[in-house]
Amino acid sequence: MKRIHWILLGIITVVSFVFEMAQEPHHWWERIPGFYIYFGFIGCVAIIVISKALGKRFIQKDEDYYDVR
Amino acid sequence: MFGSLCLPPFTAMIAGALLLPFLPKSVRSAAFILFPLLSLIIIWTSPFGELLSVGFAGYTLILSDVDALSRIFGTIFSLIAFIGGIYAFNLKETAQQVAALLYAGGSLGVVFAGDYFTLFMFWELMAAASVYLIWARRTNEAAKAGMRYIIVHLFGGVLLLSGILLHLASGGGLEIGRIAQDGSLSSWLILLGVGLNAAIPPLHAWLADAYPRATVTGAVFLSAFTTKTAVYVLIRIFPGWEILIFAGVIMALYGVVYAVLANDIREILAYHIISQVGYMVAGVGIGTALALNGAVAHAFCHILYKALLFMGAGVALHTTGTSKLADLGGFARYQKAAVALYMIGAFSISGFPLFNGFISKSMVISAAGASHLNAAMLLLLLASVGTFLHTGLKLPYFTWFGEDKGIRPSKTPRSMLIAMAIAAFFCTLLGVAPSILYAYLPFDATFHPYTIPHLVETVQILTFTFIGFWVLRGKLAGDYTIAIDTDWFYRRPKTLVWTVFVGWVNDFFDAAERTAMNTAHAVAAMSKNPARYVIYDGSDDPAYSPARYRQPVSAIILCVLVSFIIFALAGIFT
Question: Whole-angstrom Cα distance, residue B195 to residue B246?
């Protein structure tokens, strides 16, 4: 990721935010400004952290798990 | 006997499967792709209505019943069989080609079936034909996974058939139609049988177990037919069943969690089939015209981009010989075309504007919002975060980019790239011009995907999912583990079952044999010299020798003789 990429992402975010402000909210959560910004980021982090925790605790096993008698 | 004479759509594929082995080997691949085209022609020239019914054992079987819903599913199944045929053009293995044609023909048979028996027949044909696409990989793993796959599907078939028979016994008609949510056992059995093929947890484990072990080309076919015919049947029979909303949302998130943990790239894609079918199942559960149209449109788009993704992963596997994320990485510059085409599939499944996922997934999510199912709507949006995270970011990043593991892939066959390009073309076409698809959706609802709120929502979610991935990408690298799923219940107890039904039985027969042999030995040993158990002569030597027993034996014989004489004399004088 070069600096130019981050700048582009920044521009996209600002533009989307401006358009968002011009819209009437359809659902209660859309009254929170930039809701989908937090939703995307926190959702992504939560999916990784929760899945990894579940994996470590319960789900992930050695590759020969089913072969061992 | 025949209601009308018009070819049912499945005939082209089934006839193709029967014909193919008799054609010269050099033209089989070319012939293969003709049959799906022929199916398309049949489907689009057939008028709506019941076209072919056959009397059978007092029932009327409707082999071909065309309407807007079956036509759109039939179209995408034929189209994907065509694309899959091109992808497999270099494959000179007739058995796999025949299996793929039978499989595709089975799916068309289910889609155009007008009655439950016909549906069931083709349902089982699909299971039987598809398992060969797994076994044809010819690895020990594939053999075992295929066996589990067919056993699970036979079990599902039994559920479905029991449901159908109960449905008939309780006065239901043979003709396929909506079943009311009345809690009857027959409807639940049918739902379970169909739900197993739709991979609804906990009946889903066969999918993620088998698909990653199928052949490179087989997985492309597998990804298209089984789950989507089940979605079709759900739309026909169970629209508006509330439980399907829950099932769908759970599926959408379940696949996401497991895709984080999977190390095999085709397993990641397999779990994302479950996730994506979740949207369709939820759409069926919501049951409004918009939601059902969403389920149909999403199935149509999903088949295209999922096949494209499996084709991309197949290229990586085919050219490097491995599909493990932990082994791959750093060879994108050798496969630029395949990576670019894969990314079109990834943008599509992630719902990027201008690609087909955007115009279908948003229908289901909007339908949830329109029905005031806020929780379902937000959770489905969350699942789409996970979709982009895995299929759009993690998988391509760790497969083709990331750390250079020194992999130098072999050349990608051109036919594979052509097939990917065709699928990518359709993914983009439908994204740019959704009305092409919308015009043929069966239910009466209008939808406009390109509105400012949708675009804002999508752009913000995708942008910040990417940022989240970039921050945490170090945690996502593959590692050498497997993720246990509900297949644990029939795989892990294998040891126990083996111990009880094989080990213990063997132990019993071993013990019995040992006892018999020991007894025989003992008897044999005893019979070597039975005299020593009768006659004690003060010695412990077990061996028999005539000299040792001469006196005692002669004494006994003498006694016997004397007794004879005494008895004889007694006889004379009395």
Answer: 13
